[in-house]
């Protein structure tokens, strides 16, 4: 998995694992099975589920597994993680059955390279699955991954959110952020908050895992020509987009460093050190006291590029179930997958701070209702009113976001200009893509 996708998933996993303890034992099941019939008299089924990262069986059961077996008591979960000797290629080569994979589009590309056929169109039709219940942007995305097919059941999502430290705003007498801000207005606030006080440097703004800004960019700027598999980001639109962020790090006195531009250092600076006033991070990864955060924070809606601009927030990152055509328990896996996307399960997750894949306004309104850390917060700002259209999914998006991130860092640190950095980044991305394709 690419570094970009790894970083994106890391934030999602952290937020979701914290939620697992809250979710354990609190679900309520009133949904009907897709075929409307009883399943209690069926033969026992052991569903083998594969997880590409690191999570315990107990965490998964608290998060989704208990809801599956509560709805289908004859299902038993066999949980396999991506550990040494348990890679998908090794398991498939050994003939070991996997009924469903906990996936992103990058994982799906890997599976399809191994010969997995994930099309669920026949089961969606058989069970009359209502795709209109999902967020339209997410359905459109799932249909575009493999045109003419529907390659997974979405059940989780995340996107970017804007958080700020109220104590730093108070310290310097700056008004709190409000909903509906433009990036220019945010820049003005961040500039005012960047200063040295009592020998300590306070930075107005920093992103957590900047590649997510690229992959989930709210302008839906493409990264790859899906026909030629070549990088297409050396454009005026992409340069304007990056300049919007570069200026935050060029405020006098900011003193940008490689560390503040990469990895999880901005998250640590925001939550633990509390010397960053404003940050962008995954909306499922808001500060939690149960995770050690002791921070007086709040949220505002994700900024737009102009007051007349669309109200679209960033793109969503979609987590979905991949179910192989040759899975031993394919239909049972489909029923389990749709159970995790059911109204009750999604409502429970939303109440506990997990953004939903469903479009139901009631589920959206319930977001964070059962989370102590979100009480008194502007929690509704963590989910955009409307998601930006998701850029065409390709197996090479991660390569390109990594190349753009490298270019971005070089420009911010004064090592080169943006035009030169982009030209070199396109060459580097295309070289890596060509090597992967053997051309």
UniProtKB/TrEMBL annotation:
Keyword Transport: yes
Pfam families for the chain: SBP_bac_1
Keywords tagged on the record: Cell membrane, Lipoprotein, Membrane, Palmitate, Signal, Transmembrane, Transmembrane helix, Transport
UniProt xrefs under Gene3D superfamilies: Periplasmic binding protein-like II
Chain ranges passing through the membrane: 7-25
Keyword ATP-binding (UniProt): no
Top-rank taxon: Bacteria
Signal peptide: none
One GO term of the biological process aspect: transmembrane transport
Family named by the database record: Belongs to the bacterial solute-binding protein 1 family.
Protein name stated in the entry: Extracellular solute-binding protein
Organism per entry: Paenibacillus ginsengarvi
């Amino acid at each position: 998995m690419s570094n970009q996708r790894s970083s994106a998933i890391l934030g999602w996993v952290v937020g979701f694992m914290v939620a697992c303890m809250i979710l354990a034992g609190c679900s309520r099941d009133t949904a009907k099975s897709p075929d409307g019939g009883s399943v209690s008299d069926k033969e026992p089924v052991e569903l083998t589920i594969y997880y590409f990262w690191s999570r315990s069986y107990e965490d998964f059961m608290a998060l989704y597994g208990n809801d599956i077996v509560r709805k289908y008591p004859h299902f038993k979960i066999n949980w396999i993680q991506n550990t040494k000797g348990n890679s998908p290629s090794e398991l498939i080569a050994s003939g070991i059955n996997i009924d469903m994979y906990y996936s992103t589009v990058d994982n799906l590309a890997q599976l399809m390279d191994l010969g997995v056929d994930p099309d669920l169109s026949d089961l969606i039709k058989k069970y009359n699955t209502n795709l209109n219940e999902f967020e339209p942007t997410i359905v459109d995305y799932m249909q575009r991954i493999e045109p003419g097919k529907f390659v997974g059941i979405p059940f989780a999502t995340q996107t970017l959110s804007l958080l700020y430290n109220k104590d730093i705003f108070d310290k310097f007498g700056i008004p709190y952020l409000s909903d509906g801000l433009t990036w220019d207005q945010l820049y003005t606030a961040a500039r005012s908050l960047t200063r040295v006080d009592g020998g300590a440097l306070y930075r107005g703004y920093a992103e957590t895992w900047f590649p997510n800004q690229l992959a989930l960019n709210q302008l839906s700027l493409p990264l790859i020509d899906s026909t030629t598999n070549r990088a297409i980001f050396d454009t005026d639109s992409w340069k304007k987009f990056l300049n919007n962020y570069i200026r935050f790090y060029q405020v006098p006195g900011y003193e940008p460093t490689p560390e503040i531009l990469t990895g999880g250092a901005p998250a640590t600076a925001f939550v633990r050190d509390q010397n960053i006033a404003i940050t962008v991070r995954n909306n499922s990864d808001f500060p939690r006291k149960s995770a050690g955060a002791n921070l007086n924070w709040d949220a505002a809606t994700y900024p737009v590029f102009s007051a007349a601009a669309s109200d679209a927030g960033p793109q969503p990152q979609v987590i979905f179930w991949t179910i192989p055509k040759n899975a031993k328990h394919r239909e049972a896996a489909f029923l389990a997958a749709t159970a995790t996307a059911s109204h009750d399960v999604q409502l429970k997750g939303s109440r506990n701070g997990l953004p939903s894949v469903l479009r139901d306004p009631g589920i959206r309104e319930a977001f964070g209702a059962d989370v102590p850390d979100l009480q008194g917060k502007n929690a509704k700002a963590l989910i955009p009113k409307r998601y930006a259209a998701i850029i065409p999914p390709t197996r090479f998006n991660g390569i390109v976001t990594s190349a753009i991130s490298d270019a971005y860092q070089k420009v911010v640190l004064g090592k080169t200009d943006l035009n030169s950095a982009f030209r070199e980044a396109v060459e580097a991305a295309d070289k890596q893509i060509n090597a992967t394709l053997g051309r």
